[in-house]
Amino acid sequence: MREILSRLLATGGRLRSAVSRDESDGDQLATDGGATVKTTRGDSLRNSLPVEWELIESAPFWLPPVLLAGFFVYGAIAWNFLLSLTEYNGLGGAQYESFDLSMYSRMLSDGAFWQAAQNTVVLLVVFTVLCLALGLFVAILIDQQIRFENTFRTIYLLPMSLSFVVTATMWAWVYNARNGVLNQFFRVFNLEGAIVGLLRPAGVNAEVIQWLSWNTTALAAVIFALIWQFSGYAMVVFLAGLRAIPTEHYEAARVDGASTVRMYARVIIPQLRASAVSASVVLMVFALKAFDFIYALRGSQPGANMDILATMMYRVAFDSLQWAYGSAVAIVLFALALLVIGPYLYSEYRRGEL
User: Fold this and answer.
1) What are phi and psi of 38, to 5 degrees?
2) Is the pLDDT of residue 54 over 90?
3) How many other β-carbons are positioned within 10 Å of the β-carbon of residue 56?
4) Which of 266-270, 302-306, 332-336 has the lowest mean pLDDT?
C-alpha cells in the first residue's frame, strides 16, 4: 500500500512539473484580425489528468465528511441491524456470538406491530394525498392574482414554521374532551349530541367526543392536524410550478375556447408532475417523522388507534427495555423510508440531477 501511494505521489509530481514547463512554452497563434493569442500545452495536459488522480488530490475535502457520515449514520444503522439479530434487552452487553431472526418472526406474529404498520401506511398515504390536493387547490386560487396574495400566502405557510411540540400542544387544547375548542364549538350550536352519536364507537358509552381516544377519530385527528401544518408546503411548491409555466400556454388554451376548469385540468396541471413528485417525497418524509407530534400529543402510550411504527419502536425499546425487538421495528421503519425515497433518488440519478 505504501509503495502504491509513493508511486502515485511521484506520478503527480511529474505531471505537475510537466504542466509548469508547458505553461511557460506557449505558442503564438495569429487570428484573422491580426491579434495573437497565447495557447499552452499545459491546459490540454491538465485536462488529460486521470480521474483517479483528481479524486486522490481532492481527498482532504471529501474524505472527512464521508468518514464521519459513515461512522455516525451508516455505522449506527449497521449496529442497529446487528442488535435486531440478538436478544439484547438494554442491560449489560449484547451477545454477538450467534445471530437469528427470532425478533423478526416475533414481529410477524405481533398484532400490535401490524396495527402500528397499518396506521403508518394510512397516515402516509392519506396525509400526502390530501396535502397535495389542498395545496394544489390553494395554489390555483392564489395564481388568479387575488388581493392580499402575499399576506394570505404568509399566513397559510406560517404553521410550517412551528415545531411538532408547539403544534401538538395547541391541538391538544383543541381536541380536549371537556374544554376543547372543537367540542365547545359544537356545544354552542347544540351539535355535540349528534356528533357523538355519529362518531361514537360501538360499545362505548360517552356523552362527549373523545377525539384522541376513539378508534373512529384518533388517527383522523392526527392527520387533520398535520395537514393544517404542512399543506402550506405543497401550496408553495405548486405555486412555484404554476408561475414557471409560460403565459403562452394559458393564452393558447383560452384561444381554443377552453373554460378555466378544462384549461387547468387538460393543460396546466399535467405540467406540474415534477412539482407533485418532489412535494410528495418531502410530505411522506414529514409523515414518517410524525413521532414528535404524536409523542407530544399522547406520550409514549398513544393507544392502538394512534400508534405508528416510530412510537412503537420507542415504547418497546425504552419503556419495555426490549432493545433487540425495538431495533427490528426500527429496521422495518428504515426499509419503509427507503421505499419512499429510493425511487425518487434513482429517477433523479437517471436524469443526471444527482
Assistant:
1) -90, 125
2) no
3) 15
4) 302-306
Is 102 in contact with 87 (CB distance < 8 Å)?
Answer: yes
Does the pLDDT of residue 8 top 50, yes or no? no
Average pLDDT for 12-17: 50
Closest Cα to residue 287, out of 339, 210, 352? 339
Separation between Cα atoms, residue 230 and residue 282, nearest integer Å: 10
Closest by CA to 130, choosing from 49, 42, 208, 234, is 234
Q: What angle do CA 71, 76, 81 make, to 5 degrees?
A: 135
Selected from 1.10.3720.10, 3.65.10.10, 2.60.40.10, 2.10.260.10, the CATH number assigned to the domain covering 105-166+228-350 reads 1.10.3720.10
3-class SS shares of the chain: helix, strand, coil, % to 5: 70, 0, 25
Distances (CA, A) of 304 to 74, 287, 298, 309, 316: 31, 18, 12, 11, 14
Query: In whole angstroms, what is the distance from residue 296 CA to residue 285 CA?
Result: 19
Q: What interhelical angle do 323-350 and 111-142 show, nearest 10?
A: 40
pLDDT above 80: residue 84? yes
Mark residue 145 as left, alpha or beta (left: phi above 0; alpha: psi -120 to 50; beta: remaining). left
**Residue 38 pairs with which residues in a beta bridge?**
28
Q: What is the pLDDT of residues 237-268, one digit of tens each?
A: 999 999 999 989 888 888 888 888 889 888 89
C-alpha 96: how far from its chain's center?
A: 33
Counts for the chain of helices (H) and strands (E), in that order: 18, 2
pLDDT for 52 beyond 90? no
Take residue 253 and report the three cell numbers written for it. Answer: 388554451
Q: How far apart are CA 228 and CA 158, in angstroms?
A: 10
Q: What is the helix (H) or strand (E) element at residue 29, kind and residue range?
A: strand 27-30
